[in-house]
# Entry
Amino acid sequence: MHMLTVAVIGAGHMGRYHAEKLASCEGARLAAIVDPDAAQAGALAKKLGCAAHAGYREVLGKVDAAVVATPTEYHHEIALALLAAGAHVLVEKPLALTVAQADELVAAAKRAGRVLQTGHVQRYSTAFQALAARMDRPLYIDAERLAGFKQRGTDVDVVLDLMIHDLDLALTLARSEVTAVGASGFRVLTSDIDIANARIEFASGCVASLSASRVSQAAVRKLRVFQPGLYVSADLQAGKLRYVRRQDGALAETEETHEGNDALAEQARAFVAAAQGKAPVAVSGEHGRQALALALEVSRLVAARLRQYGEVT
# Structure
């Protein structure tokens, strides 16, 4: 089998993790780390036994695939160049800054006949996959994604940074067109949205209520899904599921634990398999575009509400 040569563009927080997973991924060979910070790229490349480069153009046409883990504003430019050079591309979420940019990437991947995968890593959580397998008609989805403040990720608002994970999960579970969106949110520690809540209605009748904060004191990853006859509560941080259903006129509860799941490693394996033609793309560019479009609408509604109440100059 052809060994897939892969470059990681961006040697920051997420780039480092992507590089480590790909370095140990069967079927792949980590060929290069790319980052304008030569010291950072060099240190990671030395640790993982690959080349270091200062610019992404240095690997164009020289690798089979690449992961784009740069700040979001560079996703479109870099991914577009890689696709044009014939590389399969995994782009960290959000796929791009705008829907137009996302559409261009999806079209470029189709023209090139290459994989475009979006880094919605929560899809590879075994706890989420087990939950999704039990859901056939979700009526209500309730999600909380709370995190402490970190300077990393503040190039985008909390919707594009954190809530987009749960927007993608809600779209995956509902399997239905969005019919209405409502949202509110606030600035706290940055000049952008730091706390947000969104209510998403789907054509199927399902409703999702999603909350995200990047100024909380404790990390929370909770997901609750209700459908006729069944309620599932998931702690995606701990990989725990609790099912509640009616049985013989009483409530019956069961619990599952999905420990030891390395979702990022699973994502890397899925990307390599798709690039090698061994499996379909699990989280495609189209999926990334759909989540991005919904996230941008939530952000737009929050910003409009803030302007209405004079909270944004």
About this structure: The first strand starts at residue 4 and ends at 9. The chain has eight helices and 14 strands. The domain at 123-260+295-308 is CATH 3.30.360.10 (Dihydrodipicolinate Reductase; domain 2). The chain has two domains: 4-114, 123-260+295-308.
